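pasting input
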Amino acid sequence: MQIKTVRDILDAEVLCGEEYLDQEVSSACGADLMSDVLAFVKDQGILLTGLLNLQVVRTAEMMDMKCIVIVRGKTPDEKLVDFADSRSIVMLRTPYSMYTACGRLYNDGLVGVE
Amino acid sequence: MEKIHLQYNVDGDDLTLAGEASSDVRRVLRQLGFDAETIRRAAICMYEGEINMVIHAYGGVIDVYIDPDSIEIIMADTGPGIADVEKAWQEGYTTASQTARDLGFGAGMGLPNMKRYSDFIDIETELGKGTTVKMIIKINS
């Protein structure tokens, strides 16, 4: 699935990384606990989270993730968006809750990694 | 390829900087052309360790040795030491502060993740003196 499709499914706003929206992702992970993200070594394309700090971007970077989705319409500060941008990571903001956002993506074929 | 030695001083005062050393090692491993999964394993082990150094032990020194067969990570701090190492290995056991939890860590998954993705891990710790964690990640294992 292309990141721009993820954007459309989640009615999301692109906060940075507009130039990478054509990239393909095949799985996603939803978590506010970064150690849960780090518990899976397999390739995961997207991190959905409600957490807003630099460690979210660091975790995505360590895991080669291409996109971070901020759920429930929260607004990350400029420093966080700039940091994601510097790591060539797309940052999206969706109005949906974590559960709904994950459900919408799963329903359209974007699976998790087990 | 000659053995490469990288060394990092991890600042224990600034939580936002935690992960900088891991990020740099990941960059070097990519430049050296290691496969993606090996790099992720090394990154997970080192990043969890680096977070631990910052949230529990006021920072420390990390030495990384890279050769074609393995990546060796040695993380040494002069922090409070681990009171009960047996418990620290258990998933979910934690002594972390709320500040650590606010960052998305401190849920008792750090050491279990480091153990899961390293081929060798050893902890030497002494209360009041500090902790040294040594990990080896074999390539293509």
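fyi The interface with chain A takes residues 16, 18-19, 22-23, 26, 36-37, 39-41, 43-44, 47-48, 51, 102-105, 107, 109-110, 112-113, 116-117 of chain B (CB under 8 Å).
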